[in-house]
């Protein structure tokens, strides 16, 4: 039976906002039919105009407000919402922290799980926190521009202040942009699949202030490459590494498979938890160093190590959690799918004189099966997977190895809930409150630490 939507495109109507989605959009319901509205907060009453009607939901835009939420704050710049850089900029920071706590609690409630979620650990200054930027480069009216895409599009909005990034990174992007203009290097054109420079990636050590610039190019070489590189490091004294990444494919994936060092070292160094880490262009490294230290400390405390334990760190990246745990454990094993990350991890173990850690390149789900087959008996397993969460085979082999404790660092509460249930089916229970840590202020992303123990 085909049910007709109770609203039609372009229709204007008055609604009350009842909820906020993971994407940070307000939700209103018209005869149970949900409408998603950007820049609308729970409790607000407003006039909206319907912009899109799908089968079971629609989108609308806010036109005017009849009442505003007490948690609403003035926009810093509406561009930050349009680009998705800061979709929650209009929500007061304490309310953002409550929203994140509530998101986790609600997902567990929907799954009929009674869990305690602690208040989200926030930042004293929830802006300018990112240690990494990845910006697209495009031609606009014949001039090379850097900025960010309008959400759900590839229209570049030129930007110079990215609000949530380290201001030294913003300044570096402007410098590189000006040099690209000066050397008349053409930006990549997605439609014709021509042009040269696609993206600029910048990483800066929070403590070390070492900076890496990655130029992502469609072509094997950039015109005036040597002069450009020379000018970049002269203009930016913090730069200790300039890397070319070649991505010749017509794709939305940012980096290609070939990286070449054009200046300095292939890595930058930074410290975290008093340990030194080398980080290469292709390796994952947490983007909010101040909060990462809180997150890792939490994971270490919750692991409750005495120095006698065998620990597995699955999805270990460059070994940050592994090495922080190695100081308190007998033996640590780490696994990650990215070969460069594991190379970094091995170097990082040596740099920090930690000899009780072994790193492996593999899919975590496959490596776990091998460890289980080899008879490894971990006391604690730490998992820190990407948004899609854990493979069921990994949960299966982990449960078979029977660790006393599993510390689950999650960046997506939806997959966390799913995976926790799969662990519960295999004899594990949640221990203590789930702890959200705000790694991404001004955005709806929710990071948390959950401990599971064997019943
Ligand atoms: N714990 C690290 C990294 C967490 S990010 C840190 O805090 O820095 C998630 C990591 O999972 C990334 O390093 C990514 O390369 C890795 N990854 C993604 N899919 C994987 C898989 N199937 N098996 C192993 N590692 C994977």
Automatic annotation (TrEMBL):
Enzyme active site: 411
PROSITE patterns reported for this sequence: SAM_MT_RNA_M5U, TRAM, TRMA_1, TRMA_2
Spans traversing the lipid bilayer: none
GO biological process: methylation
InterPro entries assigned to the protein according to its UniProt record, in alphabetical order: MeTrfase_TrmA_AS, MeTrfase_TrmA_CS, NA-bd_OB-fold, SAM-dependent_MTases_sf, TRAM_dom, U5_MeTrfase_fam
Keywords, ordered alphabetically: Methyltransferase, S-adenosyl-L-methionine, Transferase
GO molecular function: methyltransferase activity
Domain (TRAM): residue spans on this chain: 6-64
Residues given in the record as S-adenosyl-L-methionine binding sites: 286, 315, 336, 384
Annotated EC: 2.1.1.190
Pfam families the UniProt entry points to: TRAM, tRNA_U5-meth_tr
CDD domains: AdoMet_MTases (cd02440)
Family: Belongs to the class I-like SAM-binding methyltransferase superfamily. RNA M5U methyltransferase family.
Protein's recorded name: 23S rRNA (Uracil(1939)-C(5))-methyltransferase RlmD
Organism: Levilactobacillus fujinensis
Gene this protein is translated from: rlmD
């Amino acid at each position: 039976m085909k049910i007709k939507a109770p609203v039609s495109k372009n229709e204007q109507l008055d609604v009350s906002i009842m909820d906020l989605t993971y994407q940070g959009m307000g939700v209103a319901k018209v005869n149970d039919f949900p409408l998603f509205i950007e820049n609308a907060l729970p409790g607000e009453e407003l006039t909206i105009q319907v912009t899109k009607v799908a089968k079971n939901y629609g989108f609308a835009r806010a036109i005017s407000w009849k009442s505003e939420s007490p948690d609403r704050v003035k926009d810093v710049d509406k561009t930050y919402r349009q680009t998705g850089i800061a979709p929650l900029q209009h929500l007061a920071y304490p309310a953002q922290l409550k929203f994140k706590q509530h998101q986790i609690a609600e997902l567990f409630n929907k799954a009929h799980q009674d869990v305690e979620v602690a208040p989200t650990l926030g930042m004293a200054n929830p802006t300018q926190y990112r240690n990494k930027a990845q910006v697209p480069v495009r031609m606009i009216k014949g001039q090379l521009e850097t900025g960010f895409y309008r959400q759900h599009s590839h229209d570049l909005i030129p930007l110079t202040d990215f609000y949530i990034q380290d201001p030294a990174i913003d300044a570096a992007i402007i410098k590189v942009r000006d040099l690209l203009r000066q050397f008349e290097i053409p930006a990549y054109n997605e439609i014709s699949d021509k042009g040269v420079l696609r993206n600029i990636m910048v990483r800066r050590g929070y403590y070390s202030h070492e900076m890496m610039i990655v130029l992502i190019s469609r072509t094997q070489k950039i015109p005036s490459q040597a002069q450009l590189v020379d000018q970049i490091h002269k203009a930016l004294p913090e730069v200790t590494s300039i890397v070319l990444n070649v991505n010749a494919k017509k794709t939305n994936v940012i980096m290609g498979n070939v990286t070449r060092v054009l200046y300095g070292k292939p890595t930058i160094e930074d410290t975290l938890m008093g340990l030194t880490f080398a980080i290469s262009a292709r390796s994952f490294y947490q983007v909010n160093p101040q909060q990462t230290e809180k997150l890792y400390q939490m994971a270490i405390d919750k692991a409750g190590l005495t120095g006698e334990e065998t620990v597995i760190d699955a999805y270990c990246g460059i070994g940050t959690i592994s090495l922080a745990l190695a100081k308190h454990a007998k033996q640590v094993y780490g696994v990650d799918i990215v070969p460069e990350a594991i190379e970094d991890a091995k170097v990082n173990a040596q740099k920090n004189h930690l000899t009780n850690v072994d790193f492996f390149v593999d899919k975590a789900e496959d490596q776990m099966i091998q460890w289980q087959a080899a008879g490894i008996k971990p006391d604690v397993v730490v998992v820190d997977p990407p948004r899609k969460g854990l493979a069921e085979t990994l949960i299966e082999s982990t449960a078979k190895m029977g660790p006393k404790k599993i510390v689950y660092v999650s960046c997506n509460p939806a997959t966390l809930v799913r995976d926790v249930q799969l662990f519960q089916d295999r004899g594990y229970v949640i221990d203590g409150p789930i702890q959200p840590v705000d790694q991404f202020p001004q955005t709806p992303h929710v990071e948390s630490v959950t401990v599971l123990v064997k019943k």
